[in-house]
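Re: the request from the purification team.
They wanted to know what the chain is likely to look like in 3D before they choose a buffer screen. I agreed to run a prediction and write the result into the notebook, where they can find it.
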Amino acid sequence: QVQLVDSGGGLVQAGGSLRLSCTASGMDISNYGMAWFRQAPGEGREFVASISRSGRGTYYVDSVKGRFTISRDFAKNTVILQMDSLKPEDTAVYYCRAGLTNYWGQGTQVTVSS
């Protein structure tokens, strides 16, 4: 059974950091480009960052450039989103996705207080 598990969210003050993980079972995510999305209350789901299968290519939405870093841990079949200098507007539920598939994580809540 294919499963993506998102973890690492929490409550943090503005300027703080969090490290999100997306760990896969039942699939080898090195076969997929991987991405993180987020959804704030009352908003649609927004793309945040993506990483190529090799891990050498990354892409970010402008609002998180220079603050967030996406990476892979091939040994752990995991994709990581390191979030630094967090802002209140980063508050959302964060989801990982495998390529253009319908495989999504269950989401992890990130709340940034001002």
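For the purification team: The chain has a mean pLDDT of 97.
Please add any questions underneath this entry.
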